[in-house]
Amino acid sequence: MRRIFVLTAILLQIAVLAFMAGEREHILANGRVIRLRTAPVDPRDWLRGDYVRLSYEISRIGAERIEGLAKNQPLKKGDPIYVVLQADADGLYRFEHARLQKPAGGVFLKGRTLHPHQTLQPGSPVWIAYGIEAYFVEQGAGAAIEKRRGDRAGVQVPLEMEIVVSPNGAAVIKGYRWCPLGLGLQILRSPGNSPQNRESQESAAVRLTLANASDKPLAIVNLPSGCSFSLEPVPWSMGRWAPAYSPCRPAPPSDSDVVVLAPGAEKSIDIDFAGERGWVKADGHTRQIGALPLSEQFRLVYRPPDAADCRHLHQRDLIWHGSLASRVFHGRGQVD
After folding, report:
1. pLDDT per residue as tens digits for the range 127-184
2. Per DSSP, what are the bridge partners of residue 269?
3. Which of these CATH numbers, 3.30.70, 2.60.40, 1.10.150, 3.30.200, describes 181-325?
4. CA gap 8, 22 in Å, rounded
5. Which H or E run includes 318?
6. Domain ranges of the chain
7. What is the value of pTM for the model shown?
8. Contacts (Cβ under 8 Å, ≥6 apart) of 261
9. How buried is residue 21: exposed, middle or buried, by Cβ count under 10 Å (0-12/13-18/19+)?
């Protein structure tokens, strides 16, 4: 009887593995191909060979952005969350909204919560896994990918993962490519957390560095006053912050705003949030980002003018028109 039980257990395991392999091949053969931007972490699993651990922009979202989730409604570990995606002009898919119920159509991923949540307030982060958080590579290749990606202290070059999605939201990684542009964030001035600094509401100054990570020349558009970068709250922010004042005015770029970068070349731009760039508003309140609670965090996103606004420029064919987000930071200079 024991032999029968053991044999049955082994056959069930083989059947499950065969089903998973068959499902994966079916998705690869029949699913829809999309691209998601991410950055790798920790290149090596000593037991299973080289791999790159992945964290996506949609791996952490704010609780208030999940449709159908009531205030203080608990979530168990493993609860399904459906994340609907929308394609940007650069061909990458990004977060549109999340919901508890399966969408009737469109492009979406089915994820599951990584942790239990007993009470969820607006702004509470919900971590979600989609089954595409590990990409296995040839022996020795993981460290090379990690090196090219860069470290947290310097310029980072994002991976853009090629994902195949089934109509039910199941996803499989097919491959990857590198973003042609890398971005680094350096804190030039950090007022810190002392009560005196909080009362003065002084905010940080930062340096952004754009680097050509491709093997061909490309151009960026560096608008005056750092206006090629927009200050945007993270998806788990409690407030829906928007700039209160801005030196940026709608105007077509000029040839003097275009910077051509040779492969490996960099361009740095400094932004001081102690000035009007550091003031934001939400729900009728205007505050400097350095005076916000530490839970309120931001990214700086490089968004050059679109191709139509650059048609008159001499180097228009070299301009990269994608968008690229910095690391997460707080207005006083703490970096996530």
Report:
1. 999 999 988 887 777 777 877 888 777 899 999 999 999 999 999 999 999 999 999 9
2. 208
3. 2.60.40
4. 21
5. none
6. 30-178, 181-325
7. 0.82
8. 210, 211, 212, 217, 218, 219, 220, 267
9. exposed
